[in-house]
Amino acid sequence: MSQPVASKARVIKVLNRIGARGILTEVRVQLVDQPRMQFMRTVKGPVRLGDIVDFEDTEMTWQSSSRSNSNFGDIC
pLDDT tens across 4-62, in order? Predict the structure, then answer.
């Protein structure tokens, strides 16, 4: 099993509230270590533009998300 990878990212855009009661916020983040890498994350709790979000992710999650994106066109 893969070990969790801790990363810090800066919130560059707050997109919208999601979830049954709107307790999650969808944001676009930019990695602090690699400024060219941007992606979307779901954050629980208050978040503002410019906040630093610390999250843990595994290599397995990255691989499964890239695999599902590549097969998106095959689903009908």
Answer: 667 899 999 999 999 888 899 999 999 998 889 898 999 999 999 999 998 776 454 55
| Domain chopping of the chain, boundaries | 6-57
Nearest of 12, 7, 67, 65 to residue 34 by alpha carbon: 7
Please give the C-alpha separations between residue 15 and each of 12, 42, 69, 70, in angstroms, as whole numbers.
10, 10, 20, 24
Instruction: Quote the Cα angle for 50-13-69, to 5°.
Output: 125
Domain 6-57 has CATH 2.40.50.140: yes
